[in-house]
Specification:
751 residues; 9-stranded mixed β-sheet; 24 strands
Length: 751
């Protein structure tokens, strides 16, 4: 009899009821599970689970029953509100092409819910999720229970459509003013209805028929935005992303002409710009371009500002955002939403956002304590850069700066006149012993410049010029000092321990090209401090120091680090992995979720771009040498801070190289920025990194995902390295530049 019962149970399991594919994916992501985790639990391949969620295959016993059990439990935790009572229709469409972002072909809207947002503020917005996957632990909206339903008719007034879930209060108890998230991607469906795809898979009807009315709707009804990142700061303005179909609807070109692209905006005489003027909306100096800000002057503490992002106008640089501009609207909302919740709502390019994040975390002013009349006033916010720009030191000024107006026209400043703190670009010929090894293995420092900013004390105010100063490693500034006497063949590697090294196989820590300095040069504080650390005396000739200082970048580093680590964890790479497991997890991590991989790239670009903006150069606009340019008017134009971060990053890398050489006798073949190449017998970093009982060399290279730790960059044959150097007649060609894929072009041959 028991055999019969088992047979009956197996028969029932073979027909276990499963939700539709889109709902399976929604439930998994609502609980923060990765495909790999589900596959491991069910003892199937990752591709099998992916096929179940895509609807390409159906699970069979015995996995089907277990899969159904999991989904049933998740459905209890993340129930769907009542299905909208609307006529069903087939909305399944093929994926959109690169030339048609934002059209209904770009979004898999089958079984999606559409929300009507009427202009009557008394009724409020309603919300339901689309079929797009919800971001994993991203914005507050990720906790909102998504809905699976059929798409109703797209007419403005939908008879029979019931109210879904109220958008008035976020499910996670967040700020009700921003119940629908920080941003939305607007697209037009096949029936001509404008839809706003929001974070967390929500979709809103957009009643607006013009750009001015879209701005009004966004501010009055849509409930977009994000709370401030710092007490004295400001809430993030809502971001509206306009797809190509939305551009057509609102009378904007889907692409810019060459002239418009060069100008970075459409002409002021364009009809949409005139519409905004008539409606008494203003544009910033950027005008109506890829990243536009539309606003009215603030009244009291209330801001009225909406930002537009237009991907088809190249708002999302492919170097940093990959193919994000070609994603379906719901998928693009997911990518930008995860970035917005973990970093901040994009304010422009990743570089602009990186700089804006610094200000958002350290606003220049704050409200004072009440005066005798009970009124508060604006005052300087301690720890910030203030609201007024300060002049840099002459040695910190880039060529063409107004401070250098008295120099002869074609004068070239040397290291004794100019601070030149840059990342490494160094290589050397391989030794005979290295040529007998089989492989060249590259390791890359994770978030190297972010790690260089962590805990760094930087100047907050203007520099003070001093003659013959006593060097103080705790005092940020620029120092003119002769470090040519520092001999790398004999250096301190611990408090009471020195090491004998082959200095001819090491780059100098004091120059980007790794050359030994030849006399007095300008250096940032971390570089001079490292000379002292190596056991040598320093005697500065003069300096520009900043007595007002602080760890201005700490919060910036922490937020970007957390964003990076959280997203990598979503991709299956965790901070507590063993070296071997870490290398395995990093192999092909981007393919596990290409959308989250885009977020990783954007976070990295935010670090480098934000630091680069600290010394932004002139960008056209008819600029002439020694005339001020726009960036100089910003308090965040601080080349000294950029130099200090780069200096510390380069020194951190050199310190690890020295520790490794002293312990193993191995020297780098090439160094490029944060990538180091070693010759080794094996193809893995574990073939030359000195791990003992699973523990790395103290102070040396350590495998891991945290900023400052290293990952495997790539491996090539030693014969490959010798062949490309011979082919281009470049014995010191920097192989670190090509170690990842081995592709070398004439452009990089330095001929």
């Amino acid at each position: 009899m028991s055999e019969l019962f088992d047979a009956v149970d197996a028969l029932v399991a073979s027909r276990s009821v499963l939700p539709p594919p889109a709902e399976r994916k929604r439930l998994r992501q609502a609980h923060g599970l990765t495909i790999d985790e589900v596959a491991t639990a069910l003892k199937v391949r990752r591709a099998t689970v992916s096929g179940w969620e895509a609807g390409k295959t159906e699970p069979r016993p015995p996995e089907r029953d277990a899969y159904a059990r999991m989904l049933k439990q998740l459905a209890v935790l993340y129930p769907a509100p009542t299905t909208l009572a609307a006529p069903e229709k087939d909305t399944a469409v093929p994926e959109g092409s690169a030339g048609e972002p934002g059209t209904p072909a770009g979004a898999p809207v089958a079984e999606a819910a559409v929300v009507t947002a009427t202009e009557n503020t008394q009724t409020g917005n309603t919300q339901t999720p689309a079929s797009a996957p919800a971001p994993v632990a991203a914005a507050p909206q990720t906790a909102t229970p998504p809905v699976r339903t059929t798409s109703p008719s797209s007419t403005s007034h939908r008879p029979g459509v019931k109210k879904a879930a109220s958008a008035g209060t976020p499910a996670d108890g967040g700020d009700p003013r921003f119940a629908n998230g920080p941003l939305a991607v607007v697209a037009v469906d096949a029936d001509g209805q404008a839809l706003a795809y929001c974070v967390g898979g929500l979709v809103l009807d957009v009643p607006a028929k013009s750009i001015p009315s879209l701005v009004e709707w966004t501010l009055r009804e849509a409930k977009f935005g994000a709370p401030k990142l710092s007490g004295p700061g400001k809430d993030a303005d809502p971001l509206i992303v306009l797809t190509a179909s939305a551009l057509e609807r609102y009378g904007l070109p889907t692409t810019l002409t060459d002239e418009e692209r060069h100008a970075g905006r459409i002409p002021e005489g364009h009809k949409v710009v005139k519409q905004l003027v008539r409606a008494e909306w203003k544009l910033t100096k950027r005008g109506l371009g890829p990243w536009a800000r539309i606003y009215r002057p603030a009244t009291g503490s209330e801001r009225a500002c909406v930002q537009l992002c237009i991907p088809s106008w190249n708002a999302l640089d492919t170097r940093h955002w990959g193919e994000a501009a070609q994603l379906a609207p719901a998928d693009l909302a997911r990518v930008l939403g995860v970035y917005a919740s973990r970093v901040m709502t994009p304010r422009g390019s990743t570089a602009v956002t990186g700089l804006e994040l610094m200000t958002a975390l350290h606003p220049p002013t704050r409200a004072s304590e009440p005066d005798a009349d009970g009124k508060r006033h604006s005052e300087h916010n301690p720890g910030s850069l203030g609201k007024d720009p300060v002049d840099c030191a002459p040695c910190e000024a880039p060529d063409g700066h107004p401070l250098l107006a008295d120099l002869p026209r074609f004068h070239v400043r040397g290291p004794g006149e100019k601070l030149f703190e840059e990342a490494y670009d160094w290589a050397r010929p391989m030794t005979d012993a290295e040529c007998t090894l089989r492989h060249l293995v590259g390791i890359d420092v994770n978030m190297a410049f972010a790690a260089g900013a962590n805990g760094l004390v930087v100047g907050l105010g203007a520099p003070t010029h001093v003659k013959n100063p006593q060097f103080d490693a705790k005092l940020p500034g620029s120092w003119l000092v002769d470090l040519s006497h520092v001999d790398l063949s004999r250096v301190k590697v611990a408090r009471d321990k020195r090491a004998d090294l082959d200095s001819s196989l090491l780059p100098s820590p004091f120059t980007p090209k790794g050359e030994q300095p030849q006399g007095p040069s300008w250096y940032a504080t971390p570089t001079v401090a490292y000379a002292v650390e190596l056991g040598y005396e320093v005697r500065p000739i003069e300096a520009y120091v900043r007595y007002e200082s602080g760890r201005y970048l700490d919060g910036w580093y922490q937020r970007l680090r957390n964003a990076f680590l959280a997203t990598m964890a979503d991709l299956g790479v965790h901070a507590d992995m063993s070296p071997a497991d870490f290398l395995a997890a990093m192999d092909g991590y981007r393919s596990r979720d290409p959308e989250l991989a885009i977020v990783v790239s954007a976070v990295k670009a935010t670090v480098k771009g934000g630091l680069g903006k600290l010394r932004e150069r002139p960008r056209g606009e008819g600029w002439k040498p020694c005339e001020p340019w726009r960036a100089l008017s910003r308090p965040t134009w601080r080349p000294d801070i950029r130099a200090a971060v780069i200096s510390r990053t380069r020194i951190n890398l050199h310190r690890k190289i020295v520790k490794h050489a002293a312990f193993t006798g191995q020297y780098p073949v090439a160094v490029l920025s944060d990538c180091v190449v070693y010759a080794a017998d094996g193809t893995s970093p574990l073939d030359f990194l000195p791990y003992r009982d699973g523990k790395p060399l103290p102070g040396g290279f350590k495998l891991g995902i945290n900023p400052g730790l290293v990952k495997h960059e790539g491996t090539q044959d030693v014969l490959w390295g010798e062949e490309v150097r011979e082919r281009f007649n470049a014995p010191e060609l920097n192989l670190a530049r090509y170690i990842k894929d081995g592709q070398v072009t004439d452009k990089d041959s330095r001929e």
